[in-house]
Write a structure and sequence with these properties.
mainly alpha, Serine Threonine Protein Phosphatase 5, Tetratricopeptide repeat, two-stranded parallel ribbon, 20 helices, globular, RNA_pol_sigma-70_dom, transcription regulation, sigma factor
Length: 414
């Protein structure tokens, strides 16, 4: 088999399969049918491209082939009326849709259509992450802090409810957009966080997911310019993304925020993100994403880690806890407490938290114990974090920290 052609099929799948599903869903009105058609098209590509050569436009070839396969299936199985088949036959997938509505981008349209109010918000978010975000069931389970089989059942139930209730996959009207916005924002942010800190795999960062989330965030900001939480989410992603060049070493190893070379941060993204934060502050309608963006802005203001205004960070986390309390927010607040009042004070808050499936809780606990000189407890906490970590780069970092303690007890910080 032609290795270059096969590699191109694989790359096309990674980069364009989600768009193909979005386009086919707009055409067919059925996500399951769209997914099956796109999968068939890629199987066909694996067979044909090595023998026949790569087409001039691989994504276009996939979409056209998927459309033709879908039409064949519709006719064969009789799952659609002849009117639907004729509509699909006459539709030119390379042309813009006849009826766009307020949301033009195919993938953003799909995010809004999947976030249907008939489903619970967690189900909306999980289903959209699976279908449009390109995340695996295991990755979504990690984002929701639940076992993978539990998440798999949720996804099956969500799709069954849509099918049994005959919920249409249609683009919501402009008046319906605000009601769906919270779930849409959750989807975009979870795609970004999975890209910035991959829950599993060999690499710490999945740049294509970060880029797609930022792209969708910009589209949302254009679509809904008067929604402060949209601006807050975009600011949060831009300010976080600005640190990505310094987040890993030349060899791909994890570099903590305190140890990053801040000259490598992207100043254009910082400037854009900080301006968005200032606009949010002027509106005086605080929300969770705006507060998280303000925290990121405080970090971006500091030329060095030592210059960080941790008092301001802690005050913002206090506001965030009052507005949108969660164990993850409480854990981040405990880190700020440790910087303001010392590791013992931070540890006191950490010990009260319960995040049974999140490796960050034992990792933070391990770091605080290390700083307090409690070596054996720190080693045990690092082992607990390692047991919950699926990303190899994070595992390597935690192993190094643990091994430093076991090899040299004098390496502790006072």
């Amino acid at each position: 088999m032609d290795a270059p052609a096969t590699a191109l099929v694989e790359r096309t799948f990674r980069e364009h399969s989600r768009r193909a599903v979005a386009v086919l869903t707009r055409l067919l009105g059925d996500i399951d049918a769209a997914e099956e058609a796109v999968q068939d098209a890629f199987v066909t590509a694996l067979a044909r491209w090595p023998a026949d050569g790569v087409p001039p436009s691989p994504p276009g070839w996939i979409i056209t082939t998927a459309r033709n396969r879908a039409i064949d299936r519709l006719r064969r199985e009789g799952t659609r009326t002849e009117r639907h088949v004729q509509a699909a036959l006459l539709h030119d997938v390379t042309s813009p849709p006849q009826e766009e509505g307020p949301v033009v981008d195919d993938r953003l349209r799909m995010v809004f259509t999947c976030c249907h109010p008939a489903l619970s918000v967690p189900a909306q978010v999980a289903l959209t992450l699976r279908l449009l975000g390109g995340l695996t069931t295991a990755e979504i389970a990690a984002a929701f802090l639940v076992p993978e089989p539990t998440m798999a059942q949720r996804l099956v139930r969500a799709k069954a409810k849509i099918r049994d209730a005959r919920i249409p996959y249609r683009v919501p009207t402009e008046a319906e957009l605000p009601d769906r916005l919270p779930a849409v924002l959750s989807v975009v942010y979870l795609v970004f966080t999975e890209g910035y800190a991959a829950s599993a795999g060999e690499e710490l960062v999945r740049g294509e997911l970060c880029a797609e989330a930022v792209r969708l965030g910009r589209l949302l900001a254009e679509l809904m310019p008067d929604e402060p939480e949209v601006a807050g989410l975009l600011a949060l992603m831009l300010l976080t993304e600005s640190r990505r060049p310094a987040r890993t070493s030349a060899g791909g190893d994890l570099v903590l925020l305190a140890d990053q070379d801040r000259t490598r941060w992207d100043t254009e993204l910082i400037t854009e993100g900080q301006e968005l934060v200032r606009r949010c502050l002027r509106r005086n309608r605080p929300g969770p994403y705006q507060l998280q963006a303000a925290i990121a802005a405080v970090h971006s203001d500091a030329a060095t880690a030592a210059a960080t205004d941790w008092g301001q960070v802690l005050a913002l986390y206090d506001q965030l806890m009052a507005l949108a309390p969660s164990p993850v927010v409480a854990l981040n607040r405990a880190v700020a407490v440790a910087e303001v009042a010392g590791p013992a004070a931070g540890l006191e808050f950490v010990e009260r938290l319960d995040l049974p499936r999140h490796h960050l809780l034992p990792a933070v606990r391990a770091d605080l114990l290390r700083r307090l000189g409690r070596r054996e407890e720190a080693v045990d906490a690092y082992d607990a974090a390692l047991a919950l970590t699926g990303n190899e780069r994070e595992r390597a970092f935690l192993r190094r920290r643990r091994d430093e303690l076991t090899a040299d007890p004098q390496s502790l910080e006072a």
